[in-house]
Design a protein that fits this description.
The complex is a heterodimer of chains A (260) and B (271). Chain A is an all-alpha fold. Helix content of chain A is 74%, strand content 2%. Chain A has a two-stranded antiparallel ribbon. The longest helix of chain A has 36 residues. Chain B contains 12 helices and no strands. Chain B is globular, with a radius of gyration of 19 Å. Chain B has 271 residues and is mainly α. The longest helix of chain B has 32 residues. In chain B, helix 3 packs antiparallel against helix 7, helix 8 runs antiparallel to helix 11 and helix 9 runs parallel beside helix 11. Chain B is 74% helix and 0% strand. Classes of the chains: A mainly alpha (260), B mainly alpha (271). At the A-B interface, helix 2, helix 3 and helix 9 of A face helix 2 and helix 9 of B.
């Protein structure tokens, strides 16, 4: 495992170089926050709480879902490029697991981006709606489930990147994934806001464990919610990890069949 | 004489636009699978937002600051169509900064065509077709079908395409004056589009001034929604005059910047 820790550390160190440019681009995140602050101000004008969320919770919720979404490194792109240009034939012969290499590299990059975006979200939400009650108590558990949420997202991306062995263009798979996280995962609004008929399905879909569950653990912390989040995330990470392994082995077979 | 000359100039410009459009379309269609994937991908991308708004209106019921679901869908249909037209016809408007700081404007300066239109028209963004298709379908599905309604929808979409392009020209022209402003220009362009997609009445305070000047979402989206709901010829004239002014300012700013442009002495070809 030490070699993967080194990969993550090196990727994190590289990412520091691009941090100023990343933060400059994050100004867009502030604008999204402002738009939603303006929207929630109108929606909450005549009510203190909606579907169990106060305005303060609804806006802070967005800072956490966006932090996961914006900090995720797009590892499906280099993976699919390596598949398309043939570099993968050399990469798979190196003394490490190819999918694990990209996962750890992606985690290293993403975690470096996560911290500043969490700080930015903290400052902006504090400015717009004031402090989030229970933030300090929820933070350690919240940070863990946010990290697992990123890992889950990166596993999806590894699968998508490897699909380049079968499909010429894999970006549309990523777009579909993004939209599923957006719609079913509760990226902008908590799943509790959804119509009743779709809530059970959305709540336990894998997409909600990359957005709704980690963010709601932060804004409405309870030991039970935290445990549900961790169990769901670990379950889906295991399932997707297994799927990644199966797909990778099939891809390597295919590579041999073509003779490299 | 002047009238004849300008008519001829306008005719030449339209012919140039037509040629570029046909050429860019046939180049995009050469990769049919990629074209279809990009078009459907973008339509799907936009469709996710309908679900968001549907869920929100279901939860709240009625209106948000005077906008009901249909009004928001009109905003989305108009912005998607206008944005799509803008990037399909003037695809290079998103690349101006890069062309300036790489010294790649030389190609356009040497050709016997007006620089700015020639530059803007020479590239297309395929996914823009997905935005256009989405906008038309959304309008047809959510609004009452009348000839007047369609005419206003098309007019406002075209005006939005013009203004979004003009704003990109203004933002990217900052590169002439302050060095590489690509990140700023891309973000400012995205900001303008983002603000057009939400009910204008939710924004209060000093930001409203910016929404009618620096980020003219008010002029290209909020006022058109009001006109669409209740036709007002005076307001329409104000919109037309405002849009024309923005387009004229964009041309002036670009040409002022062009005087500061230094060639990259780079040899390149346009394929």
């Amino acid at each position: 495992m030490r070699k993967y820790a080194v990969v993550a550390r090196l990727a994190a160190r590289d990412q520091f170089i691009y941090l100023p440019s990343y933060l400059a681009r994050s100004a867009f995140f502030v604008v999204v926050m402002f738009i939603f602050y303006s929207l929630w101000r109108v929606v909450y004008a005549n009510q203190v709480s909606m579907a169990g969320f106060t305005m303060v919770q609804a806006l802070w919720y967005l800072t956490f879902t966006e932090a996961i979404e914006l900090s995720k490194s797009r590892i499906f792109q280099p993976i699919s490029e390596e598949v398309k240009d043939g570099t993968v034939a050399y990469s798979v012969n190196r003394p490490y697991s190819y999918p694990l290499y990209w996962l750890t590299r992606g985690m290293g990059e993403s975690l470096v981006k996560l911290i500043p975006i969490l700080i930015l979200g903290f400052l902006v939400a504090l400015l717009f709606v004031g402090p989030l009650p229970g933030y300090a108590r929820a933070f350690p558990a919240g940070l863990l489930v946010i990290t697992l949420g990123i890992l889950l997202g990166l596993l999806w991306q590894t699968v998508i990147g490897l699909l380049a062995f079968w499909f010429e263009e894999v970006a549309p798979f990523y777009w579909i994934l993004q939209k599923l996280v957006f719609v079913l995962g509760g990226l902008f609004i908590p799943i509790d806001f959804f119509p009743e008929f779709i809530q059970p399905f959305a709540r336990y879909s894998p997409f909600s464990f990359s957005a709704y569950w980690p963010a709601s653990t932060m804004v409405d912390y309870s030991a039970e919610r935290f445990l549900t989040t961790v169990v769901g995330q670990v379950g889906y990470i295991t399932l997707l990890g297994f799927t990644t392994g199966v797909i990778f082995r099939a891809a390597v077979q295919k590579m041999h069949a073509h003779g490299g | 004489m002047t009238g004849n000359r300008s008519r001829t100039g306008a005719g030449r410009m339209l012919r140039l636009a037509g040629r570029y459009f046909t050429f860019n379309l046939s180049a995009s269609m050469a990769y049919a699978a990629s074209f279809i994937i990009q078009v459907f991908g973008m339509a799907l991308n936009n469709a996710a937002f309908i679900v968001f708004w549907y869920f929100l209106f279901q939860r709240i019921g009625g209106e948000i600051a005077g906008y009901d679901m249909r009004d928001v869908m009109f905003l989305w249909a108009m912005t998607a169509t206008g944005f799509g037209m803008s990037v399909v016809l003037f695809g290079n408007s998103q690349q101006i900064s890069r062309l300036i700081y790489h010294g790649e404007l030389d190609v356009y300066l040497l050709q016997p065509k007006p620089v700015l239109p020639n530059l803007l028209l020479s590239k297309t963004v395929v996914s823009g077709w997905g935005d256009i298709a989405y906008g038309f379908v959304l309008f047809a599905a959510t609004q009452t079908m009348t000839a007047g309604g369609w005419a206003l929808f098309l007019l406002f979409s075209v005006l939005m395409a013009g203004v979004l392009t003009a704003m990109r020209v203004i933002y990217h022209s900052a590169t002439f004056f302050f060095g590489n402003a690509e990140d700023f220009a891309l973000m400012a362009g995205e900001l303008t589009v983002s603000f057009t997609l939400y009910p204008g009445s939710i924004f209060k305070g000093p930001i409203t001034i910016a929404l009618y000047t620096l980020i003219p979402a008010g002029l290209i989206a909020y006022v058109p929604v009001n006109i669409f709901r209740s036709f007002d010829a005076t307001r329409l004239l104000v919109v037309l005059a405002g849009d024309a002014a923005i387009i004229a300012i964009a041309a002036l700013v670009f040409h002022a910047g062009l005087r500061r442009y230094e060639s990259g002495n780079r040899i390149g070809t346009r394929m």
